Amino acid sequence: MSLVLDAGALVALERNDPTLWRRVDDAHVRGSAPLTHGGIVAQVWRGGSGRQARLAMALLGTLVVPLDNDLGRRAGVLLARTGLADAIDAALVALCHAGDQIVTSDPADIDALANAAGLDVDIIPV
What we know:
The protein is α/β, with parallel strands linked by helices. The chain has helices spanning 7-14, 18-29, 38-44, 53-60, 69-82, 87-94, 107-116, and strands at residues 3-5, 35-37, 63-65, 101-104, 122-125. The strands form 2 sheets. It has a 3-stranded parallel sheet with strand order 1-4-5, with helices on both faces. α1 (7-14) crosses α3. The radius of gyration is 14 Å and the shape is globular. It starts with a strand and ends with a strand. The mean pLDDT is 96.
């Protein structure tokens, strides 16, 4: 099981959400770094670890997967199945496996995408 973080989750970590930091710490204790992709990082990173020290710390312990051709195509299929338009969210769901926990500020769209992917995941709103 992986802890998968969307942009809202990374913003919550940057704002020092204690509940989410505990989830991240628990993931590390289980030996599984939280997971996201480069498009999510682009949504939240605004330069310099001085201004975003907590976010920089969170990203150091997060597996950031490239948004490459394969992931992009899998995301596009999910968008076609749902009629949604957010490729970044779709790519996040395309990274997931059954049993993963997705921490998100957009639970409705993530749920629709997960259903389209046939994934049984836990969706955790922030």
